[in-house]
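Hey,
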Amino acid sequence: MSQSVIAIFETNAEAQKARHALISSGFDISQIDVTYNVDVEEDRSTDGQQTATTEQPVQEGSQGSIVTVHVVNNQELLNATTILEDCGAIDVNEFSAKPAVDNDPLFDPGNIS
């Protein structure tokens, strides 16, 4: 069964660094998708629904990237998660309504089915 690990980066450069780190660690280029120039403004929140927003001029540094890694087993899942975290992926728990506990990992290996 195929799974995906998704990471958000504040800058395109961080995402590119993560992509290179994944490839250097043995991931095939076909397993990695990068979407550049996505809005990562901290004052925006969503519950997963698409919402209309008033378009505002893009400010320098306000664009980031999303890296998706398609994995085929639990070991790849763990490796990809570690690499993405080490490269500076945003902790999405920072933006949730419930405050994240600092010692909570982004990924809980015990939650793999």
